[in-house]
Each structure stands twice: as structure tokens, then as C-alpha cells.
What we know:
- The protein is 57% helix and 5% strand.
- It is mainly alpha-helical.
- Strands 1-2 form a two-stranded antiparallel sheet.
- Helix 2 crosses helix 6 and helix 9 crosses helix 10.
- It starts with 11 loop residues before the first helix and ends in an 8-residue tail after the last helix.
Amino acid sequence: MAGQIQGVALSDHRERVLTNPKLLRAIGHELRTAREDLGWTRAQLVARLDFDVHSQTIATYELGIRQCTLGRFVAICEALGLPAPDVLETAMRHAEVEPHLLVCSVDLRALVRDRAPELEPVRRWASHRLLTQPADDGVVHLEPKTVAELAVFCGLSHVELFERLIALPAEVES
């Protein structure tokens, strides 16, 4: 996942994706493999964390039996020296979870700059949003259903629009 998702409630569909047993097992596998590659026991990993957790709880995360909170996931990844988004992306690929089923973060300024004719309908929407909400940071987080609805106006599939939107370069601050 490239962008951060802040302050966005999970849709029912995304909640099912993120609690998918296959994905939980894939995340656990990535964490366990990283720990074992470092030659650490679970107890050694626990000792490096800045929160109290039992090594048996780590085992349940690694086996995909129990879902850990986002904060714990990030902390565990940091302790292992891994970027959390990379771990999640790898796990999603192994679990065969399609990224377009998650929230799409879009920099509206980049969308307005893009000149692809098929994106004209969403470009008009983005321009209007930037004009009417100037205090906004210009980044929106679109649920999969919203991307699918916008795709109809563009004559694209929801997957094609998702891929086009996440490929937009972010605004460079000067």
C-alpha cells in the first residue's frame, strides 16, 4: 500500500479483506520469517518491543490465529527492521488479496494536472473539491465502491481507475 490511510472508517468489505484468514496467515508468515532470519526467539522479539505482550501472543500473530492491532503490527515491524507497508504488500500478494479492494489515496492536485481524456470527469470533480475546500490538504481517500462508481463516468473498470489514480505523482512541495 503506497499511501497512508488516516481517519477513514473501514467499510464492511475492507474489514472482511483485512480480517481474511488467508491474509492473517500471510502476515504472520512474513513476521515469523523475518524474526527467524534474524535468529531471534519470540522472547527476544518481545524484549525489543515498547509494549507488554506475551511471547505466546506473538505466536498467535505469527500463526495467523489472532489479528494484531495496527499499532502493534507497526511496532513489531519496526522491531524487526521492516517497513510495515512492505510487509503488508508482500502478505497481500501471497494471500492473493487485490489492492483495488482497499482505500485509494489520491492527491487531487496531481489528478488536476493529469491530462488523460478519460479522466476528465474525475478531474472536474477534483478541481471543484480543491476550490471549495482550500484548507484541505488535497488528498482524499476513496473507498472501493466510490472508485467503482467514478470509473463508470470515465468509461474504465474500477481496477483500471484504481491503478490510474494510485499511479499519479504526488504534489511536490516547493
